Each structure stands twice: as C-alpha cells, then as structure tokens.
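Aim 2 progress update. The chain analyzed this quarter is reproduced below.
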Amino acid sequence: MNKLIQFPYSTILVLGLAKSGTAAAKTLLANGKRVRVSDMKAKEADDVVLELRELGAEVIIGTHPLDALDGIDLIVKNPGIPYDNPIISEALKREIPIITEIEIAYYLSDGPIIGITGSNGKTTTTTLIAEMLRNSNQPVTVAGNIGVVATDTAQHVTKDESLVLELSSFQLQGTIDFKPNTAVLLNIFEAHLDYHQSLENYVKAKCNIFKNQTNDDYLVYNAEDKTLIQEIKHAKATLVPFSNKRKVLDGAYVEKGYIYFKEEEIVAIEDIVLVGEHNIENILAAVATAKLNGASNEGIRRVLKTFTGVKHRLQYVDSVRGRLFYNDSKATNILATQKALSSFQKPVILLAGGLDRGNEFTELSPYLGSVKAMILFGETKYKLKELAENEGIKNIVLVDNVEKAAQEAYSLSQEGDVILLSPACASWDQYRTFEERGDMFIQAVHRLV
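Predicted structure tokens:
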C-alpha cells in the first residue's frame, strides 16, 4: 500500500465526510497524521463517526465551528462545500491551505497520472482512454469525479499502472502541488458560476490541471476552443492539440473520413459506433491521450468499434421493431440537449422536461428541425409545449413521468425513428438523480421489447 511519504502537513481538518472525506480522513490517520473532522449532517451513532473516533480522529458533528481551525495546518474540503462558507472564509483569512482529496491521491500515487477535465464530455473521454489502454494490455485504474474516490484507489496503484482521473472544477480548485503526467482539457463553457462566482474563477480552476506541469508532461487540448487557446499560453507542458475542423500535425484530427494521430491513420469514422459530433471531439482527445501513453492502434480500434457510450450520456439502449432508443438523461441543461439533437439525421421523438430553473428553452429552436414529436413531463412541460407549438411541431404529448413518455413515444413512432430522452433539465422535481430518471427510461424501453 502506498504511503504519504512527502506530504508536508501534520494536523489536518477534514471538512465534510461523504465518500471523499471519509476516505481522506482514514488515509491521513493511517499515515500518522493528526485529524479533526467536521461534518454538518453526521449523527453521533453513525458507523463512520464511531469508526473515525476509534481510529483516533476528533469528530465534530452538526456544525462547522470556527475554532475547529485552531492548530490546523491544512484543510481537506469536500468539493461541494463552497468557498464562501464561513469556516472556509475564515481559513482563507488565516492563510490555511485548502485542498480536495485528489491532492492526497497525487501524493499517494506511485504510477503515471492522466487527468481529464472540461465542461462537457469528461466521463465519456475518461472511459474511452481507460478502455483503449486496457485493450492495449496497459494496466489502468479509473477514479475521481467518475464516482470512485481517488484517495482510496491511489493507495494501491503500482508504478507501472496509470491512474486515470476524471476531474471537476470543484476538485481542481482545491489543488496546490497536483500534477498529472498527461492533462486533458476538452472544452470550457460557462458553468457552475453559482459556485465559482465568476467565469474567470471557473476557468482558473479548470486550468489548475496544468499549472504544475513541466515540459516532460503532456497537455492534450481542444485546438478549436478559443478560451483554451488563450489559457494554454501559460502552460509549460508539451502541447498536443486535437481538432475535428482541421489538420493538426502534432496531434489528433479528422481527414477524409479517418481519425489520425500525428499523420498516422487510426480508424475510419464509419467504423465508430459512438454517435454525435461532440463525441468525435471526445474520441480525438482519447486517441491522442491513449497513444501518448502506449496504446496500440488495434486496441484503440477495438474500443471504438464496440463502445456505445457511457450510461445516461447519449447511451444507446435498444432497438424495438426498428425504433432506436437513446438515453441521454445526463442532459440536464440546454447545451447538452443541443448536442444530442445535432447527433441524429433520422426523425427524432424528443422526450424532455424536468426541474424549472427559469429557462425559456428558445435556444433549442435551431436544433428541432428533425424532431417530429415531443413528449413532455415535469415542471417545464408547459414551457416546452409552447416552444414546440411555436416551432410547428404537431405531435405534442404531456405525460406524468419518463415511463409514460417512453410508452407514448413508441405509440407515435415509426420504423427508423430515434426516440431520444434528452431532458434539457435537472431531474430533481421528480427524481433524486439523473441516473434514477435514466434507469426508469431504460426499464420502460425493455418492457416494450
């Protein structure tokens, strides 16, 4: 098991438990650090509270008192806790460094680190990279924002094993020394401004992925993203671009129906199963990263000829009597639904709706040309109905939930149609998570078979 050999802190406050905080606290304790934990939601009788106390941690529950900072030389913060939280504001005044647990994972990892971030496409690209390496007989472990705590995983990574990390802006803002051997920057769109307070802060957090890199490291970046073009001027890493618009000789690109890496033909576009123009960008980033880390062309081709997508992200579900069902429940905003709609040339029956955040959805209008019907649900169904009427869509059905939407869509469909769940809204008006919403859609589709 890997140890925190050069970790320069001794007395640490873990702020917020959940999975990442619990893993961080246990790891720090196992490495001889003095640990204080503060969590708002934990209860005295919770197993994790009892276990951490038994391991030697001081545990404060139900509050984040400012005196919890006394004697502390580092804070490990749950990524979801904003920086305007009173205890974080006080810590900043006291100049106490604040990290998230991926910084600990960096100190623990004994092998090369591949870090992937961006506003969209992180999970798909992370999964593609890992599968390309595995199919090339390269040892690899995946963790981070993808749902696996990086600290837990990094303890067991060997020097010959790549640690592939999906990284959010929340995680990256809490880094000091973190440095991936290969950093991947997919794109930057305006997002999470309620947390970061400004676009400038959001961009800075994302770009922390390469701030400590040297020219021995690689930075794979989207050569068509204007924001990234400006930001990478500060990078010291070896730059490796990707582009779906033009030929970039020192990176990955599309030419005459093929994907290339540094003028080497990799795979024909027509052989790729994963749909969507935006996924071509994700594939280019993955190909470049995989090649830089030892993947074979055959391993890459094997993945791209079989990979149908990450669950809930424009995921192909099934074909029922010639109707193609796609689950894009992760499309919790208008931009994601725009990308989904632009992925299909066939007639589309769109299933949409959810939590009302005040959007009017007019930005979807240019993307509705192939939509023959809309099945609408959730708080926003009347707003979306008005949009559909304004666009001249004749078949508009309002239903109670996703299950009924799948049934109605099938009844209206014909052979060759795409039935697409891409809600353009968060799920919280009816479902706990977008995963729950997507799972219910998948179950409804399978009942049609």
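The longest helix spans residues 277-292. The longest strand covers residues 34-39. These observations will guide the mutagenesis experiments scheduled for the next reporting period.
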